[in-house]
Amino acid sequence: MEFIEHILGFFQQGGAFMYPIALVLVIGLAITVERLLLLRRAERENSALWKQIQPLIEQKDFNSAEQLAKGSDSAVGRVLGAALEHARTHGDSRAELELAVEESLMEVTPIIEKRTHYLATLSNMSTLLGLLGTVIGLITAFAALAKADALEKADLLSAGISEAMNCTAFGLMVAIPFLLIHAFLQTRTNDLVDSLEMACMKLVNARSAANRGNR
User: Fold this and answer.
1) Contact yes or no for 194/42 (Cβ under 8 A)
2) Does the pLDDT value for residue 160 go beyond 60?
3) Angle of helix 75-90 versus helix 62-70 axis, rounded to 10
4) Got the DSSP string for 71-112?
């Protein structure tokens, strides 16, 4: 209970700008949870489907691989399914297949990267809101000093500085974790995109090798 009371007291002493910083915190946490769940699900689904499709590609059974890919809603399934369908209907030259793969990746990648960049923006907003609250708190404190009695000036100045510093501290406490979370999620996102590109490259190479073998 004492810890909760200390947190509440810290929040109340920070002034009005503590509330927009708290709103930034809530929004950032919601984005973090949503992105973590999406990336974990995407990684799990991609890994499971790739384990099934990879042997078919290595065996040059592209029809079965296409059916399996198009029956999945995973990112790798959408990319490979679209690429294999394009190769089957519009020609399976390496250039055609690479264009189909790039087009599919351009459709899937924004979904994977969606909203992650907001965390960096929210981190900057939290820092700036904390600084703005500090500046306004100091302005208010010094303005009150001009009208206060000599005996009250020390107390007013101490209260004003305390309020200003609380706002800065809260802003930084929100901003620093979001910077770390953004870096972590960005790394996970890049790894997922790299795995999609790797799967696409293996498909292109296998299809090209099959075409050369049929000539």
Assistant:
1) no
2) yes
3) 130
4) T--SHHHHHHHHHHHHHHHH---HHHHHHHHHHHHHHHHHHH
